[in-house]
Amino acid sequence: MTTQMAPESMYRSTEGLGVWEHRGKVASVGIGHSPTARRWDGRPETSVGALSILAMRRAIEDAGISPDQVDGIVVVPVTTTGAHWDPDTPIPMDVVNAFNPSSDPLDGIGQLSAEWLIKNMPELTNVKFTMNAPGCMSAAIVVAAQAVGDGLTSNCLVLKGWHNLDGRYNHGGSSAAEVVPGSLALGPGRTIWGPPGCFGTALQFAEYCHRYGKNHDMMAPFMENSRRNGLMFPEGYWAQHRPEELTPEDYLAARWIAKPANLFDNDIPIMVAASYLFTTADRAKDLKQKPVYILGHASSRGSARSLTPTLEEVQAETGSTGRKIFEAAGITVDDLSFENMYDGFAEFHQFHIEGLGYRGMKFGDALDFYQTDISIEGPNPVLPSGGNIGSGRSRFWMHTDCMQQIQGRAGARTVTGVKPEIAVSGGPMPMGGNFTVWSATPD
Amino acid sequence: MAKQGVQPDELTKPFWDAATNGKLVIQNCTACNRLQNPPLPRCGQCGSGDNLEWKEMSGRGTIYNYCVVYDCPIRSLQEGQPFNLAVIMLEEDPAIQMYSHLPGTPVDEVPIGGPVRVVFEPTANGQVVPEWEVAA
Ligand SMILES: [Zn+2]
Question: What CATH code is carried by the domain that includes residue A161?
Fold first, then answer.
């Protein structure tokens, strides 16, 4: 079985496409998470492959269907948090051979394929549709939703796994070289000027503060709230391994990475996998869990004119993304019970929610909004999942949270100041990502 | 704080040759009359590689904004931390950006929006690279 990357035609990346043709016809009915770890310890049972199999089995079990009813898999083949397998390091064959290997020995260790997953989940006897999605769960969700809606699969597992290895990411390779090629030296990514990973976001945030008269201290309530919500997310890294609050004092005392972005403004890379089971709305009615219906999806494909996106470019893109999201779902911003837009980097969450116009906010309003009640108990919850800041780098907490809130099984994290009926999640970047609107009812 | 050395490649050789001669050149599509940086094999607007030239710039610009880098992934820059990392907007088209360490400007004392002029400094292997100084 050869698995193709999802074609661009499966995404809704322009304005004016109207309401999603499968609005309310696709539902999420199963959630499965693996445990988290800071880094891989080298054992087969903690590899990204093992975590992924575990997450998929849990999603199937959660949905209450039998594995032979699964007929589709959408997987993100890339599993790196920024750590790449060093080509000079031998691949551990004991790990490779602890599983049924595919044609690529890195499968299950430093990447994933549908081929490898099917070989190692013999209970999946009827998979007829497989597709790859780029980057994150946000893309895989959109692709799977479209595939189920289009009738390509009727019980589809969606998977994203992450591996994190020893060492500081992005410090090897060209960063350690004495001489680099001229094209790399000039960018746009790594350049000889040395922008850290968070530089682009930190620069946009600096410009945002400069233009609107805000400052980094104003992020503190958002950070405290995100960690608080994350500590109530039992699937998350901080809840499982470091149940520590993040006080405003702790946050503001953290060392800078690229001022105005500090350590906590960057998410922490971890090992983790999650899987969801999507099916048709008709089938969902008879399953174990309350269905979470997908009202629409939208994608952004912004590009910077030069080296790094300006604030103007970011705001133009997030504004357009907001319009696409509401158009696809056939709702207005006032229909949102809460938002779960992406946050890893923390300093771009405000771009996402200002683009939505969440709770009536305009560009430049979000940091003032953060000074009001943004808790799960209030009428204006901000990122009830806690996001990557609250639970580590997965880029999927916000999706799981939307589903769990709407199903009434978010536990201690349950939003109580609003009735969880319609929510939006997605990311990653303000200049490029994929977004989904979830609903308690199909219409 | 010396930057990593640079080995000019096919795409960027004219940029580096010009820098060696004390000139700042930026890619320009003559069909679109549009500058672009970083350099690309094709024009980002019309998609053609047939009309790209290297156009000399005035060497004047302004500071868009900046960060102070405390944790740089590049090994050779780490001893100079913390350092300014600014984005410069070129006079000819403010949408065209260049990075700068703003040599001579104290850390975190960067005049946002202020004028800068190009200077040239050697990298670790002697290849000269354009840099920017705050203009008096
Ligand atoms: Zn052109």
Answer: 3.40.47.10
